Amino acid sequence: MRDGGYAPLGAWVAAHVQRLHAPPVAVDHLVTCGNTNGLDLALRSLLNPGDVVLTEEYTYAATLQALRPMGAALLGVPSDEHGPLPAALRGMLEQRRAAGLPAVRVFYCVPVSGNPTGVSWSEERKAAMYSLACEFDFLLLEDDAYFYLQFNLNQLDPSSQPGLSGLGRSLLSYDTQGRVVRVDTFSKFLAPVRYATCPCVLWRRYARWRSDFAPTTNKNRAFVLDGSPRRQTSSSA
Ligand SMILES: Cc1ncc(COP(=O)(O)O)c(C=O)c1O
User: What is the DSSP string of 36-65?
Assistant: First the structure.
């Protein structure tokens, strides 16, 4: 992690992302103040006013609140209980292309337990969405706030690290072309520690906003993850 923040946390994040997602392209990381903050930073760095952004038809209200003042043109993708409908999205994209309308820039999505729908995408839908992103050249902004809260009671393995077995694949794990920016948070079940992962080529652009909007490097929280026996004080970083 090029963050320059608390190095043990950076090393932990890099190893953890590698282990869980094995991103096919080179990635970098950024410690954030929360997924909401990580999303806001991503949207600021990736969008220009008027850019077209896809979301699921019903999605996280705070992201919509961040997108509207940025002048983004929002388009809802119809979904069912398995996630966004590939044929419907393809139809929307082809229609826009045929009509000469501006191309989609980003698809903001919550693939696990969408807020407010509770819908988790099937693996088939994840693959289909990634393939449409490649074909129509847009980025995927993956907000996986509930990634660690996937419970498959048939696959729980008491000998493995609790909570890390049987998790579904992330969009990041499909990313052979460097078009996924992913935000992770532990705030839902462990502690307020959060980070983002993006292709190395996007990192400088992404991190540019950080000093203004996310000044903390979460040093005081890192002990939860790296196993330090006590809290880090601000002078021990
Ligand atoms: C989809 C989604 N993303 C992000 C967040 C917020 O995450 P954080 O507490 O890390 O800002 C929430 C929760 O409230 C959420 O439902």
Answer: HHHHHHHHHHH--TT-EEEEESS--HHHHH
Instruction: Classify burial at 99, counting beta carbons within 10 Å of its beta carbon; exposed 0-12, middle 13-18, buried 19 or more.
Output: exposed
The CA distance from 68 to 191, in Å, is: 29
Helix (H) or strand (E) holding 10: helix 7-21
> The whole model's pTM is what?
0.85
For residues 176 and 147, what is the distance between their CA atoms, to the nearest angstrom?
21
Q: What is the pLDDT of residues 162-216, one digit of tens each?
A: 567 778 899 999 999 999 999 998 888 776 777 889 898 887 777 776 655 444 4
Is ligand 1 within 6 A of the CB of residue 182?
A: no
Question: How is residue 65 written in tokens?
Answer: 């609140």
Structure tokens at 128: 């289909």
- In this structure, the residue with its CA closest to atom 7 of ligand 1 is 35
Phi then psi for 12, rounded to 5 degrees? -65, -45
141 Cα–ligand 1 center, Å: 14
Q: Which domains does the chain have, with CATH numbers?
A: 7-226 (3.40.640.10)
Ligand 1 pocket test, pick from 59, 60, 119 with the greatest ligand atom count within 8 Å of Cβ, gives 60
Contact 145 CB / ligand 1 (< 6 Å): yes
